[in-house]
């Protein structure tokens, strides 16, 4: 595995990205792919004039064996030590972090049932591709795959951080978003924003080969499990525009209304949801029924399910299942611990930290109940 470093130059209407260097000697390397949040990386490497010149903030890091994920160097730290040597700690997040530099402005509103994929792509277009000063040069809309992105909704959003809002949508519907580099014929690159969904590879389905991590198969090296009900919120009171008792208000819950000890309430302040929207340059008063639906959508985004998660270490050299070939971050798999008599027949792989150091390669996945 080699680390590739790209120089990124942003111009008025385009982005120039060129490969500057390739590195295969480092003390340690962490590559953390996440499904419901922005992934991150860290390179720990000897500090010398050449490496200091190569690893600069604002440059892009990639891998020669991963065409889907690219990191943006956000921090470079130099540590000098007469006894242990001088080292650079280079860290950052994947290219989705570029969207953190934008908020959703002006207000975006849809009062007719619209696919989540269309909503996200339109918000990206309005806030990253239209206005000259707000444009993220070199960013283009790519493909959409996965049935979750075909779900429809009505919503209104304003002033939210763009990256955080997109991951909120992802967490709600079970999809994810990514920005990758696409190589052009002239040895240049462009950034592609894509939406997709993980695949069910658990024992609960028969369409795809089963992926089972188990101490009985010797591919589950360690196992940590946690179940936390203290964070859940399953009934929302949503208050919208207005003053005092005149504020528009509604409630939201998923499925049957929770009651008694099973009811966990949360207050949602949705005062930013306007009762007006702009359509073709004209101001339209949103009918009360449509406005209530916008409040309910906001409330649905604030519900929190009980957290069931596990973090394990799996055998990186196992030929039974190969990471990024037989299974990927976002997929549903089965995790079993025979000694404890525990089985999670369908659980989602929401993160994978891939590490390289003097001890070789390690894989540390994070699972979450779907």
Question: What do you see in this structure?
Answer:
This protein has 370 residues and is mainly beta. The chain folds into 4 domains: 93 residues, Elongation Factor Tu (Ef-tu), domain 3 (Beta Barrel), CATH 2.40.30; 98 residues, 3-Layer(bab) Sandwich (Phage tail protein beta-alpha-beta fold); 82 residues; 68 residues, no CATH class. The protein has 4 helices and 23 strands. Strands 1, 2, 3, 4, 5, 6, 7, 13, 14, 20, 21, 22 and 23 form a 13-stranded mixed beta sheet that branches. Strands 9-12-11 form a 3-stranded mixed beta sheet, covered by helices on one side. A hairpin with a 2-residue loop joins strand 5 and strand 6. The longest helix is centred in the last third of the chain and has 15 residues. The radius of gyration is 23 Å and the shape is globular. The two termini are 32 Å apart. The mean pLDDT is 91.
Please specify the SSE layout and strand pairing.
Elements: E1 3-10, E2 15-23, E3 28-34, E4 40-46, H1 49-54, E5 60-63, E6 66-79, E7 87-94, E8 108-115, H2 116-128, E9 139-144, E10 152-157, H3 162-173, E11 175-183, E12 189-197, E13 212-214, E14 220-228, E15 235-239, E16 249-252, E17 265-269, E18 276-279, E19 282-285, H4 288-302, E20 307-314, E21 332-337, E22 342-357, E23 360-369
Parallel strand pairs: 9-12, 13-21, 15-17
Antiparallel strand pairs: 1-2, 1-5, 3-4, 3-22, 4-7, 5-6, 6-7, 8-10, 11-12, 14-20, 15-16, 18-19, 20-23, 21-22, 22-23
């Amino acid at each position: 595995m080699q680390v590739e470093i790209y120089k990124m130059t942003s111009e008025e209407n385009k982005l120039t990205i060129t490969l500057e260097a390739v590195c295969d000697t480092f003390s340690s390397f962490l590559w953390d792919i996440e499904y419901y949040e922005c992934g991150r990386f860290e390179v720990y490497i000897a500090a010398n004039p050449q490496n200091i010149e190569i690893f600069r903030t604002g440059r892009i890091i990639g891998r020669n064996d991963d065409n889907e994920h690219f990191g943006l160097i956000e921090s470079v730290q130099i540590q000098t030590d007469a006894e242990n040597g001088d080292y650079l700690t280079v860290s950052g997040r994947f290219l989705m972090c570029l969207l953190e530099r934008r908020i959703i402005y002006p207000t975006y509103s849809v009062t007719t049932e619209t696919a989540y994929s269309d909503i996200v792509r339109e918000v990206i277009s309005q806030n990253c591709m239209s206005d000259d000063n707000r444009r993220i040069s070199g960013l283009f809309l790519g493909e959409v795959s996965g049935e979750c992105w075909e779900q429809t909704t009505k919503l209104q959003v304003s002033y939210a951080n763009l990256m955080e809002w997109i991951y909120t949508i992802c967490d709600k519907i079970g999809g994810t978003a990514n920005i990758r580099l696409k190589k052009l014929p002239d040895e240049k690159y462009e950034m592609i924003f894509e939406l997709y969904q993980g695949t069910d590879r658990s024992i609960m389905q028969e369409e795809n080969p089963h992926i089972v991590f188990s101490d009985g198969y010797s591919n589950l090296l360690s196992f940590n499990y946690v179940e936390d009900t203290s964070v859940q919120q399953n009934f929302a009171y949503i208050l919208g525009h207005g003053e005092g008792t005149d504020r528009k208000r509604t409630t939201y819950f998923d499925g049957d209304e929770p009651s008694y000890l099973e009811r966990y309430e949360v207050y949602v302040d949705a005062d930013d949801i306007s009762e007006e929207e702009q359509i073709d340059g004209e101001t339209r008063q949103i009918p009360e029924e449509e406005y209530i639906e916008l409040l309910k959508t906001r409330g649905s985004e604030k519900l929190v399910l009980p957290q069931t998660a596990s973090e394990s270490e799996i055998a990186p050299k196992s030929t039974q299942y190969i990471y990024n070939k037989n299974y990927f971050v976002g997929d549903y798999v089965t995790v079993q611990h025979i000694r404890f008599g525990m089985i999670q027949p369908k659980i989602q792989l929401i993160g994978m930290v891939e590490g390289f150091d003097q001890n070789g390669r390690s894989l540390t996945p994070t699972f979450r109940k779907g």
